[in-house]
Amino acid sequence: MEPTKDEASSIAVTRFRFALNDRASWWDDPMIGHRGGPNKIGWPIFAVLFLLPFLIPATHGLVENSDPMWARVLMGVLIFGYSACYVVFPVVFGKERRVKLTFGAVMLALGLLSTLLTDASPYILLYATATLAFLFPAGWAAILDTLALGAVAIVLVADGRLDQSGGDLISVASITLAMFFMANLIRAIRRLELANQEIATLAVANERQRVARDLHDLLGHSLTTITVKAGLARRVLESSGDVGRAVEEIREVEGLTRSALSDVRLTVSDYREVSLAAELAGARAALRAAEIEADLPYAVDNVLPRLQSTFGYVLREGITNVLRHSGAGRVRVRLGRDWLEIDDDGTGAEAAPGNGLRGLTERVGGVGGTLHSGPRSGGGWVVRAEVPEPEPPAVQAVRAEPAGGLA
């Protein structure tokens, strides 16, 4: 099946959101605050080795130069200051953009002056252009590196040295371009790391929400039933002294506590599957203990199998709310193929939905349905969950061609 236009657009965004054809990636720098980059201990050693092809001839030229001492001192400060920037640039790798821009501008200026004032090979500028590719977002690096290479090209043309050093300038531009793409590959990997961290955080939050919702649905009903049965046992002992009936109620309380403990363990492991038939039986026992008249169905065969677990949660929470809040004397439950309705004759009124109804709304919505709750006409409260079946795909009529042919 071919993806729709919206799906194709979503796929394209997901596939290329970290690439250079995403406008935001040209100016956003995921490396700010990131403590990555070249190793700050081992890098100075490698940096000095990389600088030796530049420093040895430059130092030799300064020693043998016949210029005044002050001029040679200034040139030495320029050359070694530029080299020092290359050695220490990992220190500013994770700093804020203002610091990085200042450092990069100073290093680039020193590199241009070292290239233009010493009549050296354009290769000297490579230390600055490669560093900028890693320090700056792609947009800033492209602009500054292009301006620097363009300035060197203009000077070479003005001095008539383009034929002599033009090949070196092209090599510098090629290596700078390679460093540019390598730096942006590292940025893409960093963005993916940040995205994975965000996904992990959302997964933890969703799991915490699931456990909270399931524990509320399970323990809320179980503890409410236990409270009702314990109260019944107390009233029996206080009023009639019927020890046998009180012991029976307490025995059921013990069974409910064991069942609740098992449900909690299974819910935390996400293994528990609620049964609508079992919830009906539990609702009948809880309502009988609360001395509430119950009009409940005896079978759930008419309910779609895929909806029985969801409707089991709805029935559990609905009966729990009746026991806790309604003060009802009669409860009726009706089931259909794709709907469930619970109504009572209590004194329910409009109220802000709690965690229970909010969790049920999420559950029912997860299977494509809706949950409605509110006061009914004539008094009482009604909760209705409905999951309409999806419409079957339209079958396109096939035009039949007449059979037969020439005899």
Could you characterize the architecture of this molecule?
- By secondary structure, the protein is an alpha+beta fold.
- Helices cover 64% and strands 7% of the residues.
- It has eleven helices and five strands.
- The chain has helices spanning 5-16, 43-64, 69-88, 97-117, 126-135, 138-159, 162-239, 243-268, 276-289, 305-326, 355-366; strands at residues 293-295, 330-335, 339-344, 370-375, 381-386.
- Strands 1-2-3-5-4 form a five-stranded mixed sheet, covered by helices on one side.
- α7 (162-239) crosses α10 (305-326).
- The longest helix is centred in the middle third of the chain and has 78 residues, at 162-239.
